[in-house]
């Protein structure tokens, strides 16, 4: 391929007269441009660090404060520092370079700087105090009390002007630690509808014993951590729930995002890849420059942006076995676990593309600039046109990232076969890439003539594909299908779904509208006449390594997801609904236990077909209860992360708790999550409802449960993604979806909106 011609850019010949050196001016030019690009990026990062570090102040504010202070001191002949300037001036040595007047100016600048820093710290702490108040959540929809309006005005005053992505990080409050009593009480309330009286009384006794004895001791350590660490939950949650997980991440952790359903911008695979990759790289540039606007509720209340930092140039690296304790209670507290880490690079100038069993390194910059969409399409066309065969063991290499983590075959194979030589170089190229791209050789698309089968096939392909054609350890995989449809597969440990969703909304907005395509479906622009081609990654995979690859035990996990079975459960179960805690620094998620006594009462009333008035009353009570639980979860009053951290502390202390052990062993048979549409301004949902994301989904958490993801699109559309396992005779994704649809129709009928419209 084209990279072979670039190898002659630097040549030398050894002769009797010495070394005859030949340099290619084009090569030197590219080296210069690459270095210039790197230094520009470093300068931008330094500048952004300064801007963020002094926010809500600014360098311009520094000049205003210092100049105003000095002017007041000079023209009024007053010293508002009460002699501090004079005292500081005396410590500045006088010489031929420093007169007495200059000495006083330096003292004034120092005092002005101190005043400026003091103002910043006051504004930052006042803002932090304001953001610790969450009374605004209790206002009814459509009405804003005067107290909330006044509070929002103060927040805007102390928030500064033109915030950057990370500007509010130092002003966000820390996640509070709930009291043990409140957590135990709310836990008992959450399990009451799921337990018989005898079982509930037993659990109540365990909770009371924990609250009086072991709980306060564990709580002391959590309080200490909450004062010392930025967030008392997030680091342990990432380490023990994600990075020390034992199951395959392909189905049990990774999730996917879909393309448009009803719009097909182009059927040219390389062209769709060109626009999508360019849009993603533009997003990365904005992210590097902190030019993405921080997400703010009600356009006023900032949310934590820490999770954006590892979106690109990040991969999950398998580690060696370790004998640390388990977070999932079993008969023994200690056993072998895999210790994974997240590897993040500050900068990466390439991506890696997989096609028909071969890996390619593709540079994203040339001539000191980002490649344009048509140039990226050109690179994809070269890959698609390559008819070479995969090297031995190369085709299914990525299966190692999909396999079971409890016996660490990937970590062992990495150490034995990929730690040196060509294999290490090729693996480094993948793991240091900005992201991973798969040019899939299958066609996926929503088919109105066969909607169920087509969507099932599309979702399964995004979630796991062939199990060896996605690099599941990368922060995210961009998947472009043969007919131009696309989607994402994202690894979960580095961030939660709304973060990757923010990127995906920007890509879907830019692709057909801002970037566009020509009439024949290609990217706009011109081909590059001298653009070096992709570089084929080289492997030397031994027979032993090949056996390790093909012996992965993940196919049985894939075969269990999504197919139709026979019966539904027909009973209430412990239900997980994800909420966010990004109102706090480094906040991630909290659980809303949405199966409540009020919800169960409403469901029973609907089944028994009680009077419309009674059902409406119970629906209102259930909705109010659910909203209150959401408020508690978002404001640090949730119970599951607190219980999780108490359990971690108990294991560090070597203490056994029957209460915590039972709490954390309860299976989440219904796991739900909403994927919110965060940037509504990017889409015209009234005139073009088809130009919007369909959302995404994930695998079931329990073997006999469901995974349900949903996205509310405007006022008239909700998309659901439902998964379950074939191995369970109790679950059926299609029937469950039909029941959800019927339930929504029943609630619609309950409100009798059509009759009201007629009146």
TrEMBL record:
Pfam families linked to this entry: Carn_acyltransf (PF00755), CPT_N (PF16484)
All copies of domain Carnitine O-palmitoyltransferase N-terminal, residue ranges: 1-47
A GO cellular-component term linked to this record: mitochondrial outer membrane
Flavoprotein in keyword set: no
Primary localization class, coarse: mitochondrion
Keywords: Acyltransferase, Fatty acid metabolism, Lipid metabolism, Membrane, Mitochondrion, Transferase, Transmembrane, Transmembrane helix, Transport
Pathway involvement of the protein, from the record: Lipid metabolism; fatty acid beta-oxidation
Domain Choline/carnitine acyltransferase: 175-549, 568-742
Family: Belongs to the carnitine/choline acetyltransferase family.
Protein name per UniProt: carnitine O-palmitoyltransferase
Protein's organism: Gouania willdenowi
Gene this protein is translated from: cpt1ab
């Amino acid at each position: 391929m084209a990279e072979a011609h670039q190898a002659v850019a630097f040549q030398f010949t050894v002769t009797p007269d010495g070394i005859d050196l030949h340099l290619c001016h084009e090569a030197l030019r590219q080296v210069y441009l690459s270095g210039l690009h790197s230094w520009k990026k470093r300068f931008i990062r330094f500048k952004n660090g300064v801007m963020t570090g002094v926010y809500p102040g600014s360098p311009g504010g520094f000049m205003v404060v210092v100049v105003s202070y000095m002017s007041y001191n000079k023209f009024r002949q007053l010293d508002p520092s009460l002699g501090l300037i004079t005292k500081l001036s005396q410590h500045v040595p006088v010489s031929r370079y420093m007169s007495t007047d200059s000495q006083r100016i330096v003292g004034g600048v120092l005092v002005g700087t101190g005043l400026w820093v003091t103002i910043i710290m006051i504004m930052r702490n006042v803002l932090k105090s304001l953001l610790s108040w969450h009374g605004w959540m209790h206002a009814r929809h459509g009405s804003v009390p005067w107290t909330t309006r006044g509070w929002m005005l103060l927040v805007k005053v102390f928030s500064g002007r033109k915030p950057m992505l990370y500007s509010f990080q130092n002003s966000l409050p820390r996640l509070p630690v709930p009291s043990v009593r409140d957590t135990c009480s709310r836990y008992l309330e959450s399990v009451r509808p799921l337990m018989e009286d005898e079982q509930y009384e037993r659990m109540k006794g365990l909770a009371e014993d924990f609250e009086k004895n072991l709980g306060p001791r564990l709580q002391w350590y959590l309080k200490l951590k909450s004062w010392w660490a930025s967030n008392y939950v997030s680091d342990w949650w990432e380490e023990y729930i994600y990075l020390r997980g034992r199951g395959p991440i392909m189905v049990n952790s990774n999730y996917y995002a879909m393309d448009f359903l009803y719009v097909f911008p182009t059927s040219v695979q390389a062209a769709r890849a060109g626009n999508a990759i360019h849009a993603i790289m533009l997003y990365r540039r904005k992210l590097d420059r902190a030019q993405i606007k921080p997400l703010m509720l009600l356009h006023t209340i900032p949310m934590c942006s820490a999770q954006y930092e590892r979106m690109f140039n990040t991969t999950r690296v398998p580690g060696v076995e370790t004998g640390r304790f388990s977070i999932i209670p079993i008969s023994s507290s200690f056993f072998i676990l895999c210790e994974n880490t997240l590897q993040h690079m500050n900068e990466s100038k390439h991506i890696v593309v997989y096609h028909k069993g071969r890996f390619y390194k593709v540079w994203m910059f040339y001539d000191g600039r980002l490649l344009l969409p048509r140039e990226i399409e050109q690179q994809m066309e070269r890959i698609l046109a390559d008819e070479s065969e995969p090297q031995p063991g190369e085709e299914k290499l990525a299966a190692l990232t999909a396999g079971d983590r409890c016996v660490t075959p990937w970590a062992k194979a990495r150490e034995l076969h990929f730690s040196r030589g060509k294999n290490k170089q090729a693996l480094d190229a993948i793991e240091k890439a900005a992201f991973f791209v798969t040019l899939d050789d299958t066609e996926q698309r929503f088919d109105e003539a066969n909607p169920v089968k087509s969507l099932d096939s599309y979702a399964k392909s995004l979630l796991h594909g062939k199990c060896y054609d996605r690099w599941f350890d990368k922060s995210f995989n961009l998947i472009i299908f043969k007919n131009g449809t696309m989607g994402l597969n994202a690894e979960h440990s580095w961030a939660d779904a709304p973060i990757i969703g923010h990127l995906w909304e920007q890509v879907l907005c830019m692709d057909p509208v801002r970037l566009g395509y020509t009439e024949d479906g290609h990217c706009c622009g011109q081909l590059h006449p001298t653009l070096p081609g992709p570089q084929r990654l080289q492997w030397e995979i031994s027979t032993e390594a090949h056996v390790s690859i093909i012996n992965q035990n993940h196919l049985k996990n894939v075969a269990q997801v999504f197919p139709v079975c026979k019966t539904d459960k027909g009973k209430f179960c412990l239900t997980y609904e994800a909420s966010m805690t990004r109102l706090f620094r480094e906040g991630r998620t909290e659980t809303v236990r949405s199966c409540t006594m009020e919800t169960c009462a409403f469901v029973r009333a609907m089944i028994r077909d009680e009077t419309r008035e009674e059902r409406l009353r119970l629906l209102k009570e259930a909705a109010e209860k659910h909203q209150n639980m959401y408020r508690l979860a978002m404001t640090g009053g949730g119970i599951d992360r607190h219980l999780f951290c108490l359990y971690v502390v108990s294991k560090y202390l070597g203490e056994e708790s029957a209460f915590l052990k039972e709490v954390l062993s309860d299976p989440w048979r219904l796991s739900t999550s909403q994927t919110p549409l965060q940037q509504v301004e990017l889409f015209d949902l009234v005139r073009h409802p088809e130009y919007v994301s369909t959302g995404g989904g994930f695998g079931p958490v329990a073997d006999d449960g469901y995974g349900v993801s949903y996205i509310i699109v405007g006022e008239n559309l909700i998309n659901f993604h439902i998964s379950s396992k074939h191995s369970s005779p109790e679950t059926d994704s299609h029937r469950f979806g039909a029941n959800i649809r019927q339930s929504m129709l029943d609630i619609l009928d309950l409100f009798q909106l059509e009759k009201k419209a007629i009146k």
